[in-house]
C-alpha cells in the first residue's frame, strides 16, 4: 500500500481514527441515498444496518492502510468494482460526494489529501469496473 508521508507522523495521525470513521459513515449515508449511486449499494443491505457496519470496517481498514495508519486490510479494491454495472458517471458522482463530505468533516489540508488520493485511484478502479465480473 502506498503511503503519503515519509515523516514520523502519518496522514492517519492527522486525520485521526475518529474523524476517518465519521467521514466514512457520513459519506456512505450520502452515497446510499443518492439517486445514481444508491441502487449499486443495495446489495450491502439497508444503510446503516445490513452489512454496513462490516463494510465500513473494511473501508476503514483500507483508508488506514492508504494513509499510513495501522491496518489489517488485505482486500482487493479493483475486483470489488467489476460487474457492478458502473461507469464514468458513477465515478464522477462518487468523487463529488467524497469531496463534499471531506470538506464538511475535515480541515482543508487533510480533505485535500484524501480527495487527491481517491482521484488517483479512479483510473485503476474504473478499468476494473469496465471489465466483467469473471476477469
Ligand atoms: C475512486 C473512487 C472509489 C474508491 C476509492 C472506492 C473504494 C472502495 C473500496 C476500498 C472498497 C472495498 C473493497 C474490499 O472489499 O476490499 C469498495 C467496495 C465497493 N465499492 Fe467502491 N470505490 C470507489 C468508487 C465506487 C463507485 C463509483 C461505486 C458505485 C456506486 C462503488 C461501489 C462499491 C461497491 C458496491 C463496493 C462493494 C463491493 C463488494 O463488496 O462486493 N465504488 N470501494
From TrEMBL:
This protein's source sits in the domain of life called: Bacteria
**One Pfam family, short name please?**
Bac_globin
Q: Keywords assigned by UniProt? A: Heme, Iron, Metal-binding, Transport
Q: Sorted alphabetically, which CDD domains does this protein's record hold?
A: TrHb3_P (cd08916)
Q: Work out whether the entry's keyword set contains Nucleotide-binding.
A: no
Q: What is this protein called?
A: Group III truncated hemoglobin
**Classification via SUPFAM superfamilies:** Globin-like
Amino acid at each position: 500500500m502506498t503511503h503519503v508521508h515519509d515523516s514520523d507522523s502519518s496522514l492517519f495521525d492527522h486525520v485521526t481514527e475518529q474523524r476517518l470513521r465519521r467521514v466514512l459513515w457520513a459519506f456512505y449515508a450520502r452515497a446510499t441515498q443518492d439517486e445514481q449511486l444508491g441502487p449499486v449499494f443495495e446489495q450491502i443491505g439497508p444503510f446503516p444496518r445490513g452489512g454496513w457496519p462490516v463494510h465500513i470496517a473494511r473501508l476503514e481498514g483500507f483508508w488506514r492502510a492508504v494513509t499510513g495508519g495501522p491496518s489489517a486490510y488485505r482486500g482487493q479494491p479493483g475486483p470489488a468494482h467489476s460487474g457492478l454495472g458502473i461507469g464514468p458517471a458513477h465515478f464522477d458522482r462518487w468523487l463529488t460526494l467524497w469531496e463534499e463530505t471531506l470538506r464538511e468533516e475535515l480541515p482543508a489540508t487533510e480533505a485535500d489529501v484524501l480527495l487527491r488520493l481517491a482521484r488517483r485511484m479512479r483510473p485503476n478502479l474504473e478499468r476494473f469496473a469496465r471489465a466483467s465480473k469473471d476477469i
